[in-house]
Design goal:
Blueprint: H1 4-15, H2 21-28, H3 32-40, H4 60-69, H5 75-82, H6 88-98, H7 100-103, E1 118-124, E2 130-133, E3 136-138, E4 142-147, E5 153-157, H8 163-177, E6 179-180, E7 183-186, H9 190-193, H10 200-209, E8 212-215, H11 225-237, H12 247-260, H13 274-283, E9 286-287, E10 297-302, E11 308-311, E12 314-317, E13 326-331, E14 335-340, E15 343-349, E16 357-358, H14 361-385, E17 388-389, E18 395-396, H15 401-407
Parallel strand pairs: 1-7, 7-8, 12-16
Antiparallel strand pairs: 1-4, 2-3, 4-5, 6-9, 10-13, 11-12, 13-14, 14-15, 17-18
Helix pairs in contact: 2-3
């Protein structure tokens, strides 16, 4: 077979130098037929190894029958069924070649995002403990949102993955953007739409903003590829070498890093930095409502004698004057507020730890005062039961019942006369 170097030299001598085929054959010391063959083709010679037989060829018909009936059968099971006694490498390679013929191919199109069209949302769990006060430290979720067109990303650490906290984080990010994409994409997060249908809080949030929350198909990790790749970028580029004193410190550092680094990095996929495309993206988004949508954890309960309400696993004190009445509890990531008939009866900073009891000293003092008043009223009521008084307050003495028996000559305790009574 002619080499690539000889093929190129033959064509040069013939086309550039004008030598005849015979002269080229004499100069290069090769056969004239080889020279003629090289001049007939415009493509360089390529060595192709002749195919050799494989041990798998003998069992390929059996493999095809098994894959036809069970397209997803593992190669290890196929090896058992066909009695394979040789290397698994060559068998797996043949199964890999044959399986698409029976399973089918599911290609994906390259998605092109329009300005203002979509943002993908996801929860990222940084693998480190964050101090939350009271000597506690926890792994907390971080809500991340990435816009499809500009790739602008926002993020915020939130207290929990409950629906109210997730929606509060979304509202904080959208508020920082000043607008909302028309579609917010979520996977089957339980607090958003774990059953395939939006939860009531999520649907209320979307309706208030006038946007759509779209749930990803089940078991489709590529549906939110943008934001999930950003999560991996956070873990490799933001976390290393950093320490945090608490959730607030984490959010301050994270927000600054996203603004100065992540959103100003040139991305090959869009040929620009996210900041360079942000104005066009934002201008096509939906303007935010002038009021906040319902966010945070909410509850409505009748306040018991133990004047505390529970958020998560933490207890917060409430003004005891509301005992026995219904109170409305709203907990944002920062504040726990309790109202009773439009009157604020408790305000506390939100505790991100667990098992804590948060008490306002004023509530303890009020409880003590109310308890003293109650005990005094109960003692007065008991005193009224043991005495009588005239209208002017003059006490009327109460006589004992035996005094009335003596007055009327009645003896209810006189023993019966048993004379004349015979017993047998």
């Amino acid at each position: 077979m002619i080499t690539l170097e000889n093929w190129a030299e033959i064509r040069r001598l013939y086309k550039s130098e004008g030598l005849s085929q015979s002269a080229i054959a004499r100069e290069l010391g090769i056969a004239r037929n080889t020279v003629a063959s090289a001049l007939k083709t415009d493509t360089p010679p390529r060595y192709v190894r002749p195919p050799k037989g494989s041990l798998v060829d003998a069992v390929e018909p059996q493999i095809r029958l098994l894959l036809k009936e069970h397209p997803k059968m593992p190669a290890t099971v196929i090896a058992e069924r066909v009695g394979w006694q040789h290397s698994m490498t060559i068998l797996k390679e043949r199964v890999r070649e044959l399986r698409p013929l029976f399973v089918g191919v599911d290609p994906t199109d390259r998605v092109v995002y329009e300005p203002g069209q979509v943002a993908q949302c996801d929860l990222w769990f940084p693998p480190l403990l964050i101090p939350v006060g009271g000597g506690q430290a926890q792994i907390l979720p971080v809500l991340a949102m990435t816009c499809g067109y500009s790739r602008i990303t926002g993020g915020a650490m939130i207290p929990s993955r409950q629906g109210g906290d997730i929606l509060a984080g979304m509202w904080a990010i959208l508020g920082a953007w000043g607008a909302s994409p028309r579609t917010l994409v979520w996977d089957r997060e339980a607090a958003i739409g774990g059953t395939g249908k939006l939860t009531v809080p999520a649907a209320t949030f979307a309706g208030t903003l006038g946007v759509r929350i779209k749930l990803a198909p089940p078991r489709d990790p590529e549906f939110k590829g943008l934001v999930e790749r950003r999560n991996g970028f956070f873990e490799t580029s933001f976390l290393p070498g950093r320490t945090f004193t608490g959730p607030g410190d984490f959010n301050d550092q994270f927000t600054d890093w996203i603004d100065q680094k992540a959103n100003r990095r040139h991305l090959r996929a869009i040929g620009a930095t996210p900041r360079e495309r942000w104005d066009d993206d934002k201008s096509a988004m939906v303007a935010l409502a002038p009021f906040s949508p319902p966010v945070g954890l909410t509850n409505r309960i009748r306040l018991g004698r133990d004047y505390y309400v529970r958020i998560g696993s933490n207890d917060y004190s409430v003004d005891p004057s509301a005992v026995g009445r219904f109170v409305e509890v709203v907990a944002t990531p920062d504040v726990v507020a309790v109202t009773c008939e439009d009157r604020i009866v408790a305000t506390h900073a939100r505790h991100w730890g667990s098992g804590a009891t948060i008490t306002d000293p004023d509530h303890v003092a009020t409880a003590k005062e109310l308890r003293g008043s109650f005990n005094a009223a109960r003692a007065a009521a008991a005193a009224r039961k043991t005495s009588r008084a005239h209208g002017d307050g003059h006490v009327v003495a109460l006589r004992a019942l035996p005094d009335y028996d003596d007055l009327f000559g009645v003896d209810f305790h006189h023993a019966p006369d048993l004379q004349g009574v015979h017993t047998s």
